[in-house]
Amino acid sequence: EQLENKTKGKLQKQTCQVVLDHFEKQYSTELGDAWSSVREVLTYPLCWQHAVLLNKFSHTADLEDTLCAQGYHPAFRGTLPYLPRSLKCYVSRTPRRFPSQKHQAGKLKEYYLLNAASVLPVLALEVKDGEDVLDLCAAPGGKSVAILQCASPGELHCNEYDELRSRWLKQTMESFIPRPLFNLITVSILDGRQIGELKPEFYDKVLVDAPCSNDKSWLFSSDIQQATLRLLQRKELSVLQFQLLRSAIKALRPGGSLVYSTCTLSKAENSDVINLVLNSCTNVIPVDISEIAQAVSQQFTFHSDTQQHELLVLPEKGRAWGPMYIAKLKKV
Ligand code: SAM
Fold this sequence. Notes:
Elements: H1 2-11, H2 17-31, H3 34-42, E1 51-54, H4 61-69, E2 72-74, E3 89-92, E4 111-114, H5 119-125, E5 132-135, H6 142-150, E6 155-159, H7 163-176, E7 185-188, H8 192-198, E8 203-209, H9 215-218, H10 224-232, H11 234-251, E9 252-262, H12 271-280, E10 284-286, H13 290-295, E11 310-313, E12 324-331
Parallel strand pairs: 5-6, 5-8, 6-7, 8-9
Antiparallel strand pairs: 1-3, 1-4, 2-3, 9-12, 10-12, 11-12
Bound molecules: S-adenosylmethionine.
């Protein structure tokens, strides 16, 4: 038991008190009673879970056997309105760590480790074969990889503004996607706010997985000054998110749709941004995605106080997925 406690001690990172105090004030108001159980999970990384997204371009039956032998089972088995058979994602009930695979030039990886809630925005996007898709904020590339597990887009444009992260994105694509498919994929290093002007009415689907206050990582900042500055500048994020969404709308063909997602619980970066878009852009309407929540309600906990076009995944013990906010809009 002593050894176990020692290991736990090492793994248990230190929470940053200024961030926790800030969250406590904001989220107890916004989430009400749900906040105390969410806080318990967020502040205890040992109970965080991860999912294993198989790479349809390279995984073997052996891998699925190994996962099952280790207590993993397929996620998203409910009656989802859109669930491509080619998308295979495994989760385990208890928090455990499947080893990550190293990048090896010329060799495809068999799986991608991610938060299972990260698959929900991709499922909500409902990409069909042949559609032109833009992943506006794409690095490190988890959702681009997931999109390619679901369908064969006409074009998949993966964009990332940060140069270093865009290199990471390119490496992810090289690690997961076979060379012959590279001609379907474009990787750019642009400010996503400009893409609407550069490619107006060009895409059938746009994913805006926006830069946001990443609650999980902010809670474990080791630099108090940096954490304090981030909290002060938090308001600017919603301005950027709104501008990215406006650009995404411009880039969509009429009839096309977009999914907006963040990994924060903050209402200012979630519902408030979407409401501002709905109130100021006359060419978009909300799309009902409540069916998704119903279909996966056994695997995920959703906040009850959201509208039909949005979902908020709340991490809970044993289902420690999220935080993840998802909203879907359609251009008319
Ligand atoms: N979709 C990614 C995935 O699933 O792996 C994660 C994206 S992360 C939440 C948001 C990304 O947006 C960051 O990599 C950040 O560098 C990038 N970003 C920040 N500002 C941007 C901008 N103006 N245009 C495009 N990307 C931006």
